[in-house]
Amino acid sequence: MACVYIPVQNSEEEVRVALDQLPRDATDILDILKAEQAPLDLWLIIAREYFKQGKNEQFRQILEEGSSPEIDEYYADVRYERIAILNALGAYYSYLGKIETKQREKEEHFIMATQYYNKASRIDMHEPSTWVGKGQLLLAKGDVEQAFAAFKIVLDGDRDNIPALLGQACVQFSRGRFVDSLELYKLDPENVEALVALGILDLHRNDAADTRKGMEKMQRAFEIYPYCATSLNYLANHFFFTGQHFLVEQLTETALAVTNHGPTKSHSYYNLARSYHSKGDYEKAGLYYMASVKEINKPQEFVLPYYGLGQVQLKLGDFRSSLSNFEKVLEVYPENCETLKTLGHIYVQLGQTEKALESLKKSIKSESRDAQAFLDLGELLISTDAGAALDAFKTARSLLKQGHEEVPVELLNNIGVLHFERGEFELAEKAFKEALGNDILLKFIDSEAQHPTDKAHHDPIKGAVHTAMDDSASVEKYKDMQLFHRLEEDGVAVELPWNKISALFNLGRLLEQLHKTEMASILYRLILFKYPEYVDAYLRLAAIAKARNNVQLSIQLVVISSSIPIRDALKVDDKCPNALLMLGDLELKNDDWVKAKDTFRAAKDATDGKDSYATLCLGNWNYFAAVRSEKRAPKLEATHLEKAKELYTKVLLQHNANLYAANGAGVVLAEKGQFDVSKDLFTQVQEAASGSVFVQMPDVWINLAHVHFAQGNFALAVKMYQNCLRKFYYNTDNQVLLYLARTHYEAEQWEECKKTLLRAIHLAPSNYTLRFDAGVALQKFSASTLQKTKRTVAEVRSTVVELKNAVRLFSQLSAASNLQFHGFDEKKIETHVGYCKHLLEAAKVHCEAAEREDQQNKQRIELNRQVNMAEEIRRKAEEQRKVQLERRKQEDELKQVMQREEHLERIKEQWKSSTPGSKRKDRLQTEDEDGGNEETAEGEDHEEMEDEDASMTYRESYDQIHDHDDQVDDNPQDLLAAAGLEDSDAEDDTLAPSSITNRRRRQLSESDDDDDEHLQRQPESSPAGENSVDMQESDGD
């Protein structure tokens, strides 16, 4: 036990101080040192011991007190110890500045170190240790050249000063001059520190030859001095990677025994912890990692033990402690990919999904070529964002292929499943086939595409598969394993690696979705052939049989699967809960209520009541028990409905997103008459179920349609039923068609009701209920038609036909051999038949009345048609007369204009030919004398010509109009005659007007001839010198 003795002042006694038992409060020691005026070297020894123990605050407190002005004044003659204290403080602040990450605090530490070194220089400016300290400070600040100058000052006075030489070697190393640095270290071939430093230089070159040289130097240093802790740690690190854990433990224990230096001990504890960690002894590894962490003050000094401790705590399930240690690692290396991935995993375990996503995205950003980071991101996103998860998985697959690494089967299977959920079946099939690889499994899958007549049928695998698929008539084929036995007998090795089972099973599910159930059943049987305890394959075979309405075979398959022990899966018994639940559902479908209830309870007990699906099935059982038609007791019904609601609510409390429980709760509310609440609930379930391949819930569509029907919204109900038929049943489900027909019936849409029932009968010809409903619909349709106030003969005749069809349907049902099995009462059927016959008798009377009324209507319509035709002919004749009159008027006006122009031209020619030049002069003189009279005469002559032209125009227009009227009067009779509607009495009436018109036309033509002759004679009889007035009068006559 190391001790120091402080002499008591003015006495021979001493105060003994154990260095390993120094008080936590340094004030007690300081009081003793001050009171006894202890030598400064004791102050330095006690401060250094505090530093070794990691008590840096006490170390600083003692040295600062030892360098205070009072101490300097008291110990003015003691120079070396005062310098040593100041240099120690300078080295301490230099170290703090070197490890500090914040720039401001770093500069403050460097300023303090500079102040202490300057204070030491003022005591003795030639002290070598002060210059070495200054050089180390400058080197830490990055001022390499000034650091080199400081070390050179020391070496100029003492060439063998080891600290200065080591400092210059560091300077050369920082400059990149490794050869010069090595030369400085090689000055003393037996110097252990130099050998260790040279070995570290070689080891950090990351070259095999240099690594070998570095370990040789470490071994040489160990041979010279076997208690050098640094060399022991590097040797232990080397033997750890060679797997020699015994030597690791020996070397690290020796290093721990010979050193008190915190960082060195931390390395030793770390090596020892790694050794136990690699051997799987996590308890001891955690203890030594913790000891390594305690020897350092900050993660920046040595971060590896924090990483190892976090790994061990993660393995032991202490997620929060592990998170704390990895976050400290992240403070030092904020972009370390492995740390970020580990943090993401821890956040997932703690339920902090957002932080997990953030960490994994940072890891991908820092290392975009890390396939594992994308895998982890995809696993995290698969439950929240399937599209992003698929992209992450695809990126991981691409990176692995680019790196020529094998793509894991699990990754390809996940890609296939995500494509499957998105409805991208071709891509899903491609991914599953890639996961299965190019082996015998693909031959089974691809054999379906080959026809047995192809050349490929010579392959025994494909031939056996086609034989098994052709044997589709046998219901026992789902349990038949002879296919694979025959292949093995033919020398074909049927192998199925365990890691490909999931991919093969998922491929079978995909084939089921593509309606290739035969090939899917072969794949399920292949799984069962190699792994008979794979219960899910039995359940899928049972589901295929159930889909084909083969309930008995489905029950047999489920019973086989439920009798197989599932190791480590159940704690109560060896029953499979999934198989029991499916068995209960089949028993319920088979109308075996008591067994179904017992089976559901057994499944619930098998999982200690934790299986929500078992609880849901019990809720379904109570609901069906409440609405059973043959035993409908009000009290019992209310009890079962309340129990069903309680079970559905329990499931929703455990899993608030359970769509089936929400749908069941909505059904119970609808049965209680709370239609608005149930409709909202059904709508939410419908929206949540949309967009997923695996969630097929036609029931919620039907339930929503039922609610609309109950509220009287028949149009919406019809639309919902039709959408459900089209979306889920390809318009081939007779039960939904029955719901649709009932809605049409209540909406009094008889024709649509009849068509819907006929479709359902076509799909299920043996369903007598559909036939009965069709007869009732035809009966109701006929009765409603006969009750109409206005009906046509066609409607009455159609009613008669429909009534006869209804009588035929009811008669067929009456003749059925097993009436009670079909649920019909013979008296009730006879009542329907009698009513239909009564309607037939009434229909005859209605038919006769309708025929008479129809005949009258036809005659009335024919008469109206003839009258309308005559009116139309008259209207067209009138329009034609008006058109001809307008055309005649335009022609007459044109003719008159032309006649005036011709008349004017004749007058001009007469004037030119009958007036000589000599008489013109006499007449001009006479006109000069009687100028006023002539002007008056000319005016009168002009007016008389205008009056005469107007009278002639009026007379010609009048004759043309009357002539045209006579012609138009004849046209309607001609048009009627052309239409076959001429009147014999009208022929005599039309003869007289026709002759009168002809005579009038002859008179007008003769008058026109006389006028022309008169005009031609007039210029010859008129003298050339006569006044123009006589000419006008002659024309007028």
TrEMBL record:
It comes from the Eukaryota. Residues 878-911, 956-965 have a biased composition (Basic and acidic residues). Residues 1018-1031 have a biased composition (Polar residues). PROSITE patterns: TPR. This is RNA polymerase-associated protein CTR9-like protein. Residues 878-1037 are annotated as: Disordered. Keywords: Repeat, TPR repeat. One of its GO terms (molecular function) is RNA polymerase II complex binding. TPR repeats lie at residues 128-161, 303-336, 337-370. The lineage of its organism: Eukaryota, Viridiplantae, Streptophyta, Embryophyta, Tracheophyta. PANTHER family: RNA POLYMERASE-ASSOCIATED PROTEIN CTR9, RNA POLYMERASE-ASSOCIATED PROTEIN CTR9 HOMOLOG. GO terms for cellular component: Cdc73/Paf1 complex. GO terms for biological process: regulation of DNA-templated transcription; transcription elongation by RNA polymerase II. The keyword Lipid biosynthesis does not apply. Residues 927-950 have a biased composition (Acidic residues).
